[in-house]
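Hi P.,

Sorry for the delay on this. The queue was packed all week, but I finally got your sequence through. Input first:
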Amino acid sequence: MLSDKTILLLRKIAALLSVALSFALFCPPILHSASEQSYAPEILRYVAEDKVYLLENLRHKVTLPSEKLVLEALLSEDGPQAVSLYQKQLSLYPDPSLDQISRSRIAAYSLAMESAAPVPHQASQQDTTKHLHPSHAKKSEPKVTVPEKAKPAKPRVKITKRDTTIAGQQSFTVRFGSFKNRENAEVLAKKISRYAPAETIRQGEFYRVQLKNNYPSKQEAEHVAKKLPFAGFVIPAI
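Then the structure:
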């Protein structure tokens, strides 16, 4: 029979082996996860600077699911597909560093779709009376009053003219996106123009959509950007 000391020694050895086995089973994934590099700071900086080509360079480097989804969405020119990727990132791989990008892009796309929705067809006065007897049709015509002087609509955004910037001083504007397809860029510029003058500028192989107006300070440009129902970011004016 084994002595009490031998039994105690065997128990200690068994406990150590159990700890070692647990470490071997669970620590490699943890160490592997910790070794994965995050490119969230770079993604945020390149989005703010509108450097699409640098985002393209990150495409084959990122390994974290949240960053891969956001990056694919940013580089996609298909609006519905990009929204689907943003939603997937928020629901399956929430990331405090990137969630704001996904939420703002989804909100901007929803507003753009609402502003582009067709106006429901309204029957004209001729349509509503063509089936009535002539005498009845005449009575049914509504009385239309014409105002003496129409008041001009108030602009939704305060616009600062280009010539307000001081000579030699850096000015700023608001950019909303970059496209390889010119038609897509012009569609977005047309939607933004309903709220503030926008234009499409070609730079290399990309078409940039931004406001026509320049602002003398970054703070003033940010103030204007917050009033627009589109996700934009402030850049130095070209």
